[in-house]
Amino acid sequence: MNENQGRQSSMVETTDCLEAVGVLRRWKNLMFTIILLCLLLLQASFWLVNVGYVRVDEASPGDSAAVTTGDADAAAETTTSDETQGEAPTSGPGLLPGLPNGLTFDLLARIVQFVNGLLILAVMLYSLTLLISLMASLIGRLGGISHVCRAFFLSLIMVVLIVPWQKLSGFAIVGVTYTPDELLRCVTSKSDDVFGIGLYYLRFCGYWLFVLLLLFMSQLRTARWTNSILRRLEII
After folding, report:
1. Facing residues of 66 across strands?
2. pLDDT at 189 over 90
3. Cβ atoms of residues 205 and 51 within 8 Å
């Protein structure tokens, strides 16, 4: 009698843990999607400024003002020809097909700030979700512990790399997230030597690519964890 009750209690715990795993998987996938979109937006923002589609005012690198070609056209229409040195071009590298002409660095800076906050929050929730998934696997004895453990530690590394340590006093390392002022300063003071250019693109592209790789590796580990649970319970 006691043995039957123990088996029923174990089945109830396993069922509860499986339901929890289903909820956690949905939240994990949602956080993964948000993180991926935020990383893509940050990289797109960098390239918009780097290639000149969003112009920055190099005369005041500490300011967040920017001028696009569309703004230059509007200024040319309101000024007389003798007050300006030449007509503003109607098209050029400051204009990107599919993007509004009013995309200035000020607007881009607000987008970057919002994406930074959302990205940090999403990565922390993603790591916390994996931690709870690990606990559910241990309590319910669902299996696949090695996969979810690796995914959790990969997510912890992502948290460490994404936090903007450069904004905290006393830290010499930088995070993947960057502030608009940092982007403006790096773009306007970009070096011409090979070593400087390498560090420049390593900061904004290589670092970002490494975190993106960690994200996909963590997601792949969680997929293996789910398959291991299903095989263990003979669902598939």
Report:
1. 56
2. no
3. no
